[in-house]
Design brief:
Length: 95
């Protein structure tokens, strides 16, 4: 599939990216979210772009790790429920 060449603005700089057409909206949304968070940090008085971007990266990783841990807990809950169901159903169908 052919990639699109797009320009996105991140931290007051433009970047040319090559993306799959179905990813364009997500990439543009991500760039907008970074810019919005950068503006929030600037509103808090953090005017150093590098510091603000480092904090944004840190915040993103915290969110990612929390999501991964929540997914692991949910997967374990599903596995536990399937195991319980298997223990109930197996004797019923083998007799």
């Amino acid at each position: 599939m052919e990639e699109l060449s797009i320009r996105v603005k991140i931290a007051d700089r433009y970047y040319r990216l090559f993306v799959e057409p179905e990813s364009e909206a997500v990439v543009r949304e991500a760039a907008k979210l970074i810019q919005d968070e950068l503006n929030q940090y600037r509103d808090l008085g953090i005017n150093d772009t590098q510091e603000a971007l480092a904090r944004i990266a840190f915040d993103c990783l915290i969110t990612k790790l929390r999501g991964e841990r929540q997914m692991q807990r949910l997967q374990q809950m599903v596995f536990d429920k399937i195991t319980q169901l298997d223990q109930v159903v197996t004797p019923a169908i083998t007799t």
